[in-house]
Amino acid sequence: MVKRVIGGGVLCIAGMFMLLYARKLFTTRTWTFMLPGSDGPTAVFVAGRIGNFPPAVIVIGIIGGAALVLGIITIIRANNTDH
Q1: Of 12, 20, 49, nearest to 32 (Cα)?
Q2: Three-class DSSP category at 32
Q3: N or C terminus: fewer CB in 10 A for the chain?
Q4: Is the dihedral of CA 68, 69, 74, 79 positive or negative?
Q5: Are 30 and 49 in contact (CB under 8 A)?
């Protein structure tokens, strides 16, 4: 039972790190553009992302989410002694 709890904890930690890394990959490579002639309190900014949505973000996010869910389920099932 201890091995299952430790394994579930490792899966949870790995899943969280993978989700945070996917979020970091998603938020990089951004750009901001200010329309000319509009400065001061009425400034208009346009923000966007350069390039396409990287498929690594999707894959890492899915694997990280699955690892997190599997870790939580493993810990819950290991702590449930009412089999």
Answers
A1: 49
A2: strand
A3: C
A4: positive
A5: yes
**Tokens coding 23:** 């979020």
Q: Which residues contact 42 (CB under 8 A, 6 or more apart)?
A: none
Residue 53 per-residue DSSP state = P
State the chain's mean pLDDT as an integer.
Answer: 77
H-run or E-run covering 75 = helix 55-79
Higher pLDDT, 16 or 38: 16
Reported as type and span, the H/E element at residue 34 is strand 30-34
Residue 19 CB contacts under 8 Å (≥ 6 apart), including other chains? 60, 61, 64, 65, 68
Q: What residues pair up with 45 in beta bridges, in sequence order?
A: 34
The whole-angstrom separation of Cα 73 and Cα 83 is 15
Return the residue matching tokens 């998603």.
26
